[in-house]
Amino acid sequence: MEDPQLELEDMILKSNSLSCTDRPIKLEAREDKVTRILEYGLDGKVISDKAVNRNKVKAILSEAWKTSKGVAFMDFVQNLFMFLFEAEGDRRRILEQGPWSIDGNLLSLKPCKLDRLIRKVDFSRGTFWVQVHNLPPLWLNKENAEKIGARIGKLLDTEFTCEGDLRWSRFMRLKVEIDLNKQATAMRLLPRP
Asked: Which residues contact 99 (CB under 8 A, 6 or more apart)?
């Protein structure tokens, strides 16, 4: 009778030498599915060291997003999700109204791209609307918005409600893209008014 340990080692050696590089297989994606995912899909990651419950994510976002036609939730590995919307308008609105949070943890969303695995998506940057308070009215202008936005991250947009570049309000709104690895500890998510 052979030694079971030697038999196991022999099987491991044989399996390590197996290969199918001599006959590659060309795989193809279905074009109709590709287009739908690109137009209606979002990749998402809950930024947290702890695993979040898939059902909790679904319940929270279904209530918060209130989509017109529905959204499918697919979970992959820890805290990584794909959201497939029934209506492109819902997808666009969800991206524009972000950021979103799950139990105080940021949900970073990115448009789907099919040339990458969800585990390879760069969720290290996020887009936020930032309010700048306690500036005198004459300092609430586009030039200062650009300076403040550049200090925070990359300025994408400013919101001015009046004509010209001067804002007569209690605060200024800036849309900025920031590096979440550097800024996350200094941020605080506030409820929407």
From this structure: 106, 107, 108, 126, 127, 128, 189
What's the pTM value of the predicted model, to 2 decimals? 0.68
DSSP 53: P
Residue for token pair 């306690």: 134
CB atoms inside a 10 Å sphere around CB 113: 13
- Cα–Cα distance measured from residue 76 to residue 10, given in angstroms and rounded to the nearest whole number: 35
Closest CA to 107 of 82, 85, 130: 82
Six-digit token pair at 161? Answer: 């409600």
Q: Contact at 8 Å (CB) between 80 and 123?
A: no
pLDDT digits (tens, 9 = 90+) for 132-159: 888 887 888 888 899 999 988 999 998 8
Q: What is the DSSP letter of 130?
A: E
C-alpha pair distances (Å), 183 with each of 3, 84, 153, 155, 176: 58, 29, 9, 15, 12
